[in-house]
Amino acid sequence: MSQELPEKSDTRYRQRWSGAYLAALEITGKYNASAKAADISIGCIQRERHLNPDFLVAEKEAMGVAMHMLHDEALRRAVQGTRRLKFTADGRVMVDPRRVRRLEDGTPDPTQDPNDYVYEEVEYSDALLAKMLAAHRPEHRNQLKVESENTNVNIEAGQEQISPERLAELQLLRREALEEDAS
User: Fold this and answer.
1) Beta bridge pairs of residue 144
2) What is the DSSP code string of 46-82?
3) Which of 47, 61, 127, 155 could bond 146 through an S-S bridge, CB–CB 3.0 to 4.6 Å?
4) Domain contains 3
5) Residue 68: strand, helix, or coil
6) What are phi and psi of 37, to 5 degrees?
7) Alpha-carbon gap, residue 27 to 59, rounded angstroms
């Protein structure tokens, strides 16, 4: 059950809950979830914001940490993509035949872990990338048009337009650069 602030002068109690609240806020980026994690009410937080300017600064810094984590994850999804398992129409995980080890007689090796040959695709979010670019380059905000997630991205830069072929080429270069960085 959430607790109200017992006494305005009880600094040990404030330090205890405020540390837990701010740590949770850095991780979740959510005020209500962080209050719940610290076992306090939103009213208690609002009162502390009003009484303690240092708390308000610390809260903004914690939210800044959370937003940086969110930004990093969005950039990772847009650039590195997200691995997705592919399934058949009847719901079974698809197998990538190129990854199945075979015995001399051509049958699959029963000792191979099935997770080694499941079929995965990496999905990139061009729409997310375009939105992040628009956020960081406000002067281009009205020039970015994303027609559809992951396909037919139409990015206009003034009068110039990046063709789907050029975009595919740029994405390939991006993937190659990421692979070089990983090795």
Assistant:
1) 155
2) HHHHHH-HHHHHHHHHHHHHHHHHHHHHHHHHHHT-E
3) 127
4) no
5) helix
6) -65, -35
7) 12
What is this structure's pTM? 0.53
Residue 1 covered by a domain: no
| Residue 163, domain extent | 124-183
Q: Would you tell me how many other CB atoms lie within 10 Å of the CB of residue 174? A: 16
CB atoms within 10 A of CB 35: 22
Q: For every one of its 183 residues, what pLDDT tens digit does the chain have, with 9 covering 90 and above?
A: 445 544 444 666 677 898 999 999 999 999 999 999 999 999 999 999 998 999 999 999 999 999 888 888 888 888 888 888 888 888 887 878 788 888 899 888 888 887 777 888 888 877 777 777 777 766 655 555 544 344 433 333 333 345 567 666 666 766 766 676 666
How many residues comprise the chain?
183
Considering the domain architecture, whether residues 40 and 57 belong to the same structural domain is answered as: yes
- Based on the fold, state whether residues 50 and 91 are members of the same structural domain: no
Residue 9 CA to residue 16 CA, distance in Å, equals 13
Same domain, 139 and 164: yes
Is 16 within a domain? yes
Is residue 57 in some structural domain? yes
Q: For residue 164, which of 154, 176, 149, 174 has the smallest C-alpha distance?
A: 154
